[in-house]
């Protein structure tokens, strides 16, 4: 509920507006971990401060999907046994792999490839969520 509300507020486009049913579906299909969710929220907060223009151009559904995928890749993709494939994320989010690739490149460019997160940033988001 909190993630849906946050994403609808930061990416206000009425096109592909994020719905709880979609979040539940993608979360189950992609096995989104709590850590990935937290890291994705850090990325979104980072974008809100550094690149708000990007957030005006992307739908909240696409932002949810791509931020979760990038966070998951950052945390778990070791390149061999635990690879994260864009086509699998696309299937979970009901978009084609070409769209996933474009979303990923645009997201990484918007965040200036700044994926490393100091643990303090995670704790700030956690404190905000708990509040």
Automatic annotation (TrEMBL):
CDD domains: CYCLIN_ScPCL1-like. GO terms for cellular component: cyclin-dependent protein kinase holoenzyme complex; nucleus. GO terms for molecular function: cyclin-dependent protein serine/threonine kinase regulator activity; protein kinase binding. Belongs to the CNPPD1 family. This is Protein CNPPD1. It comes from Circaetus pectoralis (black-chested snake-eagle).
């Amino acid at each position: 509920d909190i993630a849906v509300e946050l994403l609808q507020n930061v990416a206000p486009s009425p096109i592909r507006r994020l719905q709880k049913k979609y979040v539940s579906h993608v979360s189950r299909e992609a096995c989104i971990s709590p850590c990935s969710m937290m890291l994705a929220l850090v990325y979104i907060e980072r974008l809100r401060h550094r690149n708000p223009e990007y957030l005006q151009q992307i739908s909240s559904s696409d932002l949810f999907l791509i931020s979760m995928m990038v966070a998951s890749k950052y945390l778990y993709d070791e390149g061999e046994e635990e690879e994260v494939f864009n086509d699998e994320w696309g299937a979970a989010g009901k978009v084609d792999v070409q769209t996933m690739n474009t979303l990923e490149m645009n997201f990484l460019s918007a965040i200036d490839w700044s994926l490393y997160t100091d643990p303090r940033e995670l704790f700030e988001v956690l404190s905000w969520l708990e509040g």
